[in-house]
Specification:
Shape of chain B: elongated
Oligomer: heterodimer
Number of helices of chain A: 13
Largest interface: A-B, 28 and 18 residues
Mean pLDDT of chain B: 83
Distance between the termini of chain A: 26 Å
Low-confidence stretches of chain A: none
Strand content of chain A: under 5%
Number of strands of chain A: 0
Radius of gyration of chain A: 21 Å
Structural class of chain A: mainly alpha
Strand content of chain B: under 5%
Shape of chain A: globular
Number of strands of chain B: 0
Distance between the termini of chain B: 95 Å
Helix content of chain A: over 70%
Radius of gyration of chain B: 25 Å
Chain lengths: ~280, ~200
C-alpha cells in the first residue's frame, strides 16, 4: 500500500485529533515500509559480520581487552551506521516524494504538511529503532560469546544505546529540516556538518570564553546554545568501562532531545508549508 | 549471442579477471621496493588532545586502536630483532611507545591497561615517561591501586625510596590493595639496608 492509499483510509477521520494521529501513523508506517523495501536494514548483516569477526579476532590483538573493544566497536558502529541511515535516508524522505510526484497525490487529500513531515520523521525513527535494538542485541550476544557466559557489561550498554538513539533522532530531524528546502546532496553535507559541530560544541564554549571581544564572544556563545550539543549523547567510552549515566542525566538528555526535535520539526514545517509545488 | 552464452562469457570474464588481478598483485609484491625500516617509527601526526577533540565521540574506539597499535609496535620490533632479550627492551629503540600509550590514555583516561603497560615496559626505555604516564593514570583513576603498586616499584628501582614509600603508603590506603600491601612489606624489609630516608607510618 503506498502513502496515498494509506492516507485515503485515514481521511475518514478528517480534522479530529484522532484523525490527525491516524494520518501521521499511516505516513510513518509507510515510511518504515519504504525503508525496509529499500533494503536499509541490510546494514544489519554487515554489522553482524563485523561483530562476529571482531569477537573472533580481537582477542588476538587487544591483549585481553576484547570485551572493552567489542563494546567500543559495536556501539561506535551503531552510531556510525545509524548516522549514515539518518542522513542519507533522511534527506531523501521528502525529496523522493517530490521527485516521483507522489507528493501531489498526498496533498490532494486532507493531509497537513506538518503531518506529512512528522509522519515521515517517525517512520525513519522507527527504522532506526529497529536498527539500534538489533545491533544492541548483537553486541550483547558478542559479549556473551567472548565471556563464555553472562557479562556484567551487557546491562550497562543499554543506556548508551538509548543515548545513541536520541542522537540519531536529532540527526534525522536535522536532515529532514535541510531536505525541506534544499537538494539531497547539500542536505546530507549540511547534516553531516551539524553532526561534526555538535560534537565540537564544548570547544565553541571554551572558544567563546577565551575571546576578548564581546561581539565574537556573544556569537560563539550564541552558536553554542543554538546548535545541538551532541557530545552529551556520547556515552560509549564510559559504557565500555561498565559505567552508566544517572537517571537524572538520562532524563535531561531525553528532554533536551525532545525540545530540540520539536523546534527543528516546527521550523521544517514552517519552511515546507511555504513551498510551492505548482 | 544468446542469453546463456552471454551469461557464461560474463562469468568467465569475472573469474579470469579475479585470477589475473591476484597474479598481478603477486607480481607487484615482488616489484615493490623494500619497506623503510624507519617508517615504523614515524612520529604520530596528532597528539592525544587533538585526537580526542577530532574523534567525534568515537574516542573509546580510537583509544583501542592506539592500544592495539602499541602492542603491535612492540611485537613487531621484537620479531624483527630476535637477538634482543625480553627483559631488556631498551635495546629495541621503542621511541614511539610512549606517545602511543600517552595518546591511548588521553583518548580514554579510564583505560587502565595502557597505564600498566607503560609502567611495566617503559622504564627500560624512558623512565621519566613511564613515571609521567603512570602518574597521569593515578590522577584519572585514584582508586586504581595497581597503578600505585607499579609506580612505587618504578621509584624503588630508581632508588628513590622516599617517593616509593609515599606512593606505596597512598596505595595501601585503597580498598582491595593487597598486592600493594605485599609490595610495601617487601619494600619495608629491604629499605633499611638500602638506606631509605623516610618511611610511611
Amino acid at each position: 500500500m503506498d502513502t496515498t492509499a494509506a492516507i485515503t483510509q485515514s481521511t475518514t477521520h478528517a480534522e479530529t485529533r484522532q484523525g490527525r494521529i491516524w494520518r501521521i501513523t499511516a505516513i510513518a508506517r509507510n515510511a518504515f515500509r519504504e525503508a525496509v523495501r529499500d533494503r536499509v536494514l541490510y546494514n544489519l548483516v554487515l554489522f553482524v559480520l563485523l561483530l562476529t569477526a571482531a569477537s573472533i579476532f580481537i582477542g588476538e590483538l587487544s591483549g585481553g581487552q576484547e570485551r572493552k573493544v567489542i563494546v567500543d566497536l559495536g556501539l561506535s558502529a551503531m552510531l556510525l551506521f545509524g548516522m549514515f541511515i539518518a542522513i542519507f535516508v533522511g534527506v531523501g524522505l521528502v525529496y523522493k516524494e517530490i521527485e516521483r510526484r507522489t507528493i501531489y497525490a498526498v496533498f490532494s487529500k486532507p493531509v497537513g504538511r506538518g503531518e506529512f513531515l512528522v509522519g515521515k520523521y517517525l517512520g525513519l525513527c522507527l527504522t532506526l529503532l529497529v536498527n539500534v535494538l538489533v545491533m544492541g542485541v548483537g553486541v550483547s550476544l558478542a559479549l556473551l560469546y567472548v565471556n563464555r557466559g553472562w557479562d556484567p557489561l551487557i546491562p550497562t550498554i543499554w543506556p548508551a544505546v538509548l543515548l545513541i538513539y536520541m542522537e540519531l533522532m536529532l540527526l534525522t530531524a536535522t536532515a529532514l529540516l535541510f531536505s525541506s528546502f534544499s537538494s539531497p546532496a547539500l542536505s546530507a553535507l549540511l547534516t553531516f556538518m551539524v553532526f561534526i559541530i555538535g560534537h565540537f560544541s564544548a570547544d565553541l564554549k571554551s572558544l567563546a570564553n577565551s575571546l576578548g571581544g564581546s561581539g565574537a564572544r556573544w556569537l560563539f556563545t550564541g552558536l553554542y546554545y543554538l546548535l545541538p550539543n551532541l557530545s552529551n549523547y556520547s556515552f560509549i567510552t564510559p559504557a565500555a568501562h561498565g559505567r552508566t549515566p544517572s537517571p537524572g542525566f538520562l532524563f535531561a538528555t531525553a528532554l533536551y532531545a525532545f525540545v530540540y526535535i520539536a523546534v527543528i520539526l516546527a521550523a521544517a514545517t514552517l519552511v515546507f508549508s511555504r513551498r510551492n509545488f505548482k | 549471442m544468446n542469453d546463456r552464452t552471454r551469461t557464461i562469457a560474463l562469468g568467465l570474464v569475472v573469474v579470469i579477471g579475479i585470477v589475473c588481478a591476484a597474479l598481478l598483485v603477486r607480481r607487484l609484491d615482488t616489484l615493490r621496493p623494500p619497506e623503510d625500516p624507519n617508517a615504523i617509527d614515524e612520529s604520530l601526526y596528532v597528539n592525544g588532545k587533538t585526537a580526542r577533540r577530532i574523534s567525534l565521540g568515537f574516542n573509546g574506539l580510537a583509544a583501542d586502536w592506539y592500544w592495539m597499535r602499541s602492542l603491535q609496535y612492540v611485537g613487531r620490533k621484537i620479531i624483527n630483532d630476535n637477538d634482543v632479550p625480553l627483559d631488556n627492551l631498551g635495546l629495541l629503540n621503542l621511541k614511539l611507545l610512549a606517545p602511543l600509550l600517552d595518546t591511548a590514555t588521553t583518548l580514554d583516561p579510564e583505560f587502565l591497561d595502557p597505564y600498566e603497560y607503560a609502567a611495566i615496559v617503559l622504564p627500560a626505555i624512558n623512565v621519566n615517561e613511564a613515571i609521567r604516564i603512570t602518574k597521569k593514570g593515578i590522577d584519572a583513576n585514584p582508586n586504581a591501586w595497581r597503578l600505585y603498586h607499579h609506580l612505587g616499584y618504578i621509584y624503588w628501582q630508581q632508588h628513590d625510596y622516599q617517593a616509593a614509600s609515599e606512593i606505596y603508603g597512598s596505595g595501601a590506603q585503597i580498598e582491595g590493595r593487597w598486592t600493594v600491601d605485599v609490595a610495601l612489606r617487601r619494600f619495608l624489609a629491604d629499605a633499611p639496608k638500602l638506606g631509605a630516608q623516610r618511611l610511611p607510618r
